[in-house]
Every structure is written in structure tokens, then in C-alpha cells.
Amino acid sequence: MTVAPNMGSRMAFIGLGEMGKAMTRNLHRDGNLTSPLTLWNRTKSTADAHSADLGGDCKVAETVQEAVENSDIIWTCLQDQSAVEQVFDSVFAANVNITGKLFVDSSTIAPEWSNATAKRVIEAGGEFVSMPVMGEPVVAAAKKLICIPSGKPESVDRIRPYLEGVVCRAIVDLSGEEPGTSSLLKLMGNFLIMTTMETVAEVNVFADKSGIGTKNMSKLMGAMFPNPPHAIYNHRMLTGEYYEGTPIVEVYKALALTGQVLDMAKACGASVPIYEVAREHLKLVQEHEGSKADITGIYGAVRVKSGLPYRNGAAEGSSNQKE
After folding, report:
1. Which stretch of DSSP H or E encloses residue 224?
2. Residue 71: which domain range?
3. Where is the 6-phosphogluconate dehydrogenase NADP-binding domain (predicted)?
4. What is the total count of domains within the chain?
5. Are 105 and 247 contained in the same domain?
6. What stretch of H or E contains 60?
7. 3-class SS at 208?
8. CA atoms of 154 and 23, how far apart (whole Å)
């Protein structure tokens, strides 16, 4: 379904982590916005710097209330559920008039909290779409996220013009479903991410230990799985970015999320042993490298469990791989 953009919409984006920066960069460049994009971040200097990076024609709000008051669409992408709660509590505490305003939340939060927030917003006269996204910041930068919107169809339609070809490559459309449905599906998506990461880590260690070498394994993986996420995880692991680069997700955040997914699996009686193994490897990453280590350090954990050093030496240029 194609919907024409609401040419009168004023948009605010709240939350400028690496994902938020990538998404706003694409919205600013390709979203056909007719009003300056409003930015707000808890650390204002981050918003100021990002506005300058975008060309300086964005508005930086002093407060989240100001961002909401001066916008028709408020898009949030925050670190965790606690941050989302703080933002919405702040808006409601300030008695901001949200009648007719659309809130779109791309944070990863519990399904029941998405439903509760939607109810709160709708009862106050606003609209709410839960729209978590699948993909890492590098995927977001390339406009290749997967967006999972749920909520009232007419509300989803308001945000649709800013999705495919702007911030994402595909939409998993859950229009008409409760907002919490997309949050639940995002948690299921985390299962796919973690098990893929675990597979890439294990097969590379297996290749190293067997003597075939990770370079040869990369040739096979590139032929079989040339696209993200396999390609991204494989690159980070083999180049040493899993310990040298900027984390795509810090391990303490991943442990919190995977714990939530495991609780959900246990509650419904699902057996997820490969996911449990991946989470145990995340714990080893944190023990070895600290809470802010990268999630792809799973590769280092599997290496340690296989009798290899945590770090593969790629950053120093060492290699014992066979061509």
C-alpha cells in the first residue's frame, strides 16, 4: 500500500544513539520533510553536534516537552524501557496537549508496556504506533532496516511514507494488531539474531581448529549468505572489530534483552537450547572484556571455550589462517 506523505507533518525524533543518528540522517536526506526535523536527546550536546552534522537546518529542542509541543509526529528510539518510560512520564507530567499527535516508538520494550503506553496516549487524544526495527546501525545507515509497525491501520498509514526507501528496505506490516504484537515479534527477532551470531562464531572457530582456516570459510559463507546479518557478523569477528571496534550493541544490554526473551520462552514452554548457549557465551564476554564489550564478542567466547585466545590478533595483522 502506498500512502502520500502528509505534507503538513512536523516531525520530532527523540533519542540519538547510533541507531537514531542513522535513521535521522536518512529522514533528513530522503524523507521529503517540509519542516525542519526537530531533534532531542537527553545529552543536548549530542543533538547539537548531530544537527550540525546534518547541515544545521534542524531544530534542537531544549526539552522533550518542547519537541512534542512543536511536532505532529514524535518518533522515539531510546536505549531501553526505562528511558522510554521517563520520556512519556515527562510528557504527561507536563500536561502537553497531544491531541492528534502520532507517537511512533522504535525502542525495544516489553509488549505489555507498548500496550499500556498506547492506551495512555490514545486516551489523551493522540495516536500510537509500536514500530521496533531489526538491524544494526550500519544497516540503518544503508536504509536496510526491517520495520515492524503495529497499531491502528490509520495510524500506521501516517508513518508509512517515511519507511520503505527512507529508513528501511522492508516492512513487516502488523497493522490492526495490538501495539505489543510488534514488540513481541521484535523479541522473537532477537532469537534469530543471537542464534545467527552464535552460528557464525562457532563455524569460524571450527574452521580454525580443523585447519581449513577462516579465510576459506569466509569464501563459503560469502557464497551462501552474502547479505547481512551473516556478512556483518563475519566481518566484525574476523577483522578483530569484536574487540577493537565501536560496539554495535554493548553486552550488558544484550544480556538484559536475552534474559527477557528466555523468560518469555520458559513462560510458554518453548525449548530454546541454542539461544541458551548464546546467552552463556554473552556472560563469558562480559566476564572477559567487561560490560561494555561488543555483542559479537561471542566469537571470542567460543574461541576461549575451544582453547584459543579470546582475541584473534587480526587487529595486529597476525594470522594462522590457510588460504
Report:
1. helix 214-224
2. 11-177
3. 11-165
4. 2
5. no
6. strand 59-60
7. helix
8. 23
Active-site residue numbers?
A: 186
Closest CA relative to residue 248, chosen from 284, 297, 294, 200? 294
pLDDT at 315: 62
Phi, psi of 226 (to 5 degrees): -75, -15
Task: With respect to residue 297, please indicate whether it lies within any of the assigned structural domains.
Answer: yes
Write down the pLDDT at residue 9: 83
Shared-domain flag, residues 221 and 279: yes
Q: What is the pLDDT of residue 314?
A: 77
Contact in structure between 61 and 40 (CB atoms under 8 Å):
yes
Q: Do residue 58 and residue 20 come from a single domain?
A: yes
Rounded to 5 degrees, what angle do the CA atoms 165, 166, 169 make? Answer: 45
Residue 95 is assigned to a structural domain of this protein: yes
Residue listed under C-alpha cell 498509514: 157
Mean pLDDT per block of 10 residues along the chain (323 residues) reads: 53 96 97 95 96 91 96 95 94 95 96 95 98 93 96 98 97 97 94 97 98 96 92 95 94 94 94 97 98 97 98 62 36
Burial class of residue 297 in the structure, from the number of CB atoms within 10 Å of its CB (0-12 exposed, 13-18 middle, 19+ buried): buried
pLDDT at 68: 97
CA distance 149 to 77: 13
65 and 152 fall within a common domain = yes
DSSP letters spanning 126-170: -EEEE--EES-HHHHHTT-EEE--EE-HHHHHHHGGGSBTTTEEE
**d(C-alpha 205, C-alpha 199), whole Å:** 10
Show Cβ contacts of residue 105 under 8 Å, excluding neighbours closer than 6 positions: 75, 76, 77, 84, 114, 117, 128, 129, 130, 131, 132
